C-alpha cells in the first residue's frame, strides 16, 4: 500500500480521517454482503417479546438481544465486517482504535479471528474490568491521555507513523453495514414491525437499521440520544456537523461529542425522527429493566426504553422492536442503578 494511504486527509467533520476512509454511504446491498461475512462468525440474536413492556404500553414490544453476542455488545457485528474486508497490508501490520470499552473489545476479538494485531488506546480512568476484557481477547491496551479525544489523537498519530489501520469511531462503511445485519434479522423474524427505536452515539445503529429494516419493511426507524450529549440529534436536524464541548452522560457508550459525516449522511436520509431523554430517565430505566426483566443492560441501551413513556399514546397498538445493545455495565454503575432495587 502506498505511503500516502497512511497520511491524514481533510475531514468533513471534527475528527481524524485517512485516505483509506471511504465516505461513500453504504447501501442495503452492502448490509446483505456483510451478513455473508458474519455468518461464519456470529449467531443470529434472539428477538423476544417483553410481556411487561407490551402490557404497560398497550403495544407488542420486542427486544433484539444484541447483548448475547460475543463480547456482549452489538459492536462486534460492524467491527468484524470491517476487519474481514481489510487490505492485506493492514492485516499484516494491524489495527488500532480508541475506546472506553465495547469498540475496543470488539476489535480485539475480530483481530484474533483474522490473525492480526489490535491496539486499543484508552483514556486514564478507564475501568479495570474494561481493560482486562480487551486484553483477555488478545488486544494490546495503551492508557493514554485524560479523555477519549486524547486517546483518539494518540491512536491516529501511531497509525500515521507505523502504518496501522486506524479504525474510526464513526466513519466506517463496514461498521455501518455490519451493524445493519441485525436489522435484516428483525425484518425476517417480524416483517410486520411498525417501529424500531435505537440508541444513537456515533450513529452506526441509526444508519445500519435505516438501511436494513427501515429499507426492506414499512417500519419507521427512530433514534434516541442522551439529552446531555445530543450532537448527532442536532446535526440530524440542521445538517451541520458541529461538535459539542463535553460529552458527559451515564450512557457513556453513546457519548459521542462529534457528529460524524458518514453515518449522519445515511441517517438524514433513512432515519425518520430523533429524540433525546434525560439523565434521570436513563438511570431509572436501567434499574427498571433489571427489576422487571432481569436484564442488566448498559446505560447506552436505555434511551429507547426511556422514550416509550413520552410516546405512550402514539405507540399504542403498534409492533415495536428495541435492541438491547450491550451488557458490559461497569461495576460502579451496577451499584448505582441497583441500589434499593
The helix content is 40-55%
Strand neighbour order, sheet with most strands: 3-4-12-9-10-11
Radius of gyration over all CA atoms, rounded: 19 Å
Structural class: alpha/beta
Give the overall average pLDDT: 94
Ranges where pLDDT stays below 50 over 5 or more residues in a row are none
Number of domains: 2
Determine the strand fraction and express it as a percent band. Answer: 5-15%
Main beta-sheet annotation: 6 strands, mixed
CATH architect. name of the largest domain: 3-Layer(aba) Sandwich
Total number of β-strand segments?
12
The CATH class designation of the largest domain is Alpha Beta
Gross morphology is globular
Output the CATH topology of the largest domain: Rossmann fold
Secondary-structure element pattern, one letter each:
EEHEHEHHEHEHEHEHEHHEHHEHHEH
Instruction: Give the N-to-C terminal Cα separation.
Output: 56 Å
Report what the structure shows.
By secondary structure, the chain is α/β, with parallel strands linked by helices. Helix content is 44%, strand content 14%. It has 15 helices and twelve strands. It has helices spanning 28-38, 51-57, 75-84, 88-93, 102-113, 128-136, 148-162, 173-189, 204-211, 213-216, 231-238, 261-270, 279-293, 302-310, 331-338, and strands at 8-9, 17-18, 47-49, 60-64, 95-98, 118-122, 140-143, 165-166, 195-199, 220-226, 273-277, 319-323. The longest helix has 17 residues, at 173-189. The protein is globular. The mean pLDDT is 94. Its cofactor is pyridoxal 5'-phosphate. It holds the Pfam family PALP. This is Threonine dehydratase. Keywords: Lyase, Pyridoxal phosphate.
Amino acid at each position: 500500500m502506498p505511503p500516502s494511504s497512511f497520511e491524514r486527509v481533510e475531514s468533513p467533520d471534527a475528527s481524524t480521517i485517512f485516505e483509506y476512509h471511504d465516505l461513500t454511504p453504504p447501501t442495503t446491498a452492502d448490509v446483505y454482503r456483510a451478513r455473508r461475512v458474519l455468518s461464519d462468525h456470529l449467531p443470529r440474536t434472539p428477538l423476544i417479546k417483553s410481556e411487561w413492556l407490551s402490557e404497560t404500553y398497550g403495544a407488542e414490544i420486542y427486544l433484539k438481544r444484541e447483548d448475547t453476542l460475543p463480547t456482549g455488545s452489538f459492536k462486534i457485528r460492524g467491527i468484524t465486517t470491517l476487519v474481514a474486508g481489510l487490505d492485506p497490508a493492514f492485516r499484516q501490520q494491524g489495527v488500532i482504535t480508541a475506546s472506553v470499552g465495547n469498540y475496543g473489545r470488539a476489535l480485539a476479538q475480530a483481530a484474533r479471528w483474522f490473525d492480526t494485531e489490535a491496539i486499543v488506546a484508552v483514556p486514564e480512568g478507564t475501568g479495570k474490568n474494561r481493560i482486562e476484557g480487551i486484553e483477555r481477547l488478545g488486544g494490546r491496551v495503551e492508557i493514554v491521555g485524560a479523555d477519549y479525544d486524547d486517546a483518539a489523537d494518540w491512536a491516529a498519530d501511531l497509525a500515521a507513523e507505523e502504518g496501522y489501520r486506524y479504525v474510526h469511531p464513526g466513519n466506517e462503511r463496514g461498521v455501518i453495514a455490519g451493524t445493519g445485519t441485525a436489522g435484516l434479522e428483525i425484518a425476517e423474524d417480524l416483517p410486520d414491525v411498525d417501529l424500531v427505536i435505537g440508541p444513537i452515539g456515533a450513529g452506526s445503529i441509526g444508519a445500519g437499521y435505516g438501511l436494513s429494516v427501515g429499507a426492506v419493511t414499512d417500519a419507521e426507524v427512530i433514534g434516541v440520544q442522551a439529552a446531555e450529549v445530543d450532537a448527532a440529534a442536532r446535526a440530524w436536524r440542521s445538517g451541520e456537523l458541529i461538535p459539542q464541548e463535553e460529552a458527559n452522560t451515564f450512557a457513556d457508550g453513546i457519548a459521542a461529542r462529534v457528529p460524524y459525516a458518514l453515518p449522519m449522511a445515511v441517517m438524514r436520509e433513512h432515519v425518520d425522527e430523533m429524540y433525546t431523554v434525560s439523565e434521570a430517565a436513563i438511570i431509572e430505566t436501567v434499574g427498571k429493566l433489571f427489576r422487571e426483566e432481569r436484564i442488566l443492560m448498559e446505560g447506552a441501551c436505555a434511551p429507547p426504553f426511556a422514550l416509550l413513556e413520552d410516546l405512550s399514546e402514539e405507540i399504542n397498538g403498534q409492533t415495536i422492536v428495541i435492541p438491547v445493545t450491550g451488557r458490559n455495565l461497569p461495576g460502579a454503575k451496577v451499584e448505582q442503578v441497583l441500589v434499593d432495587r
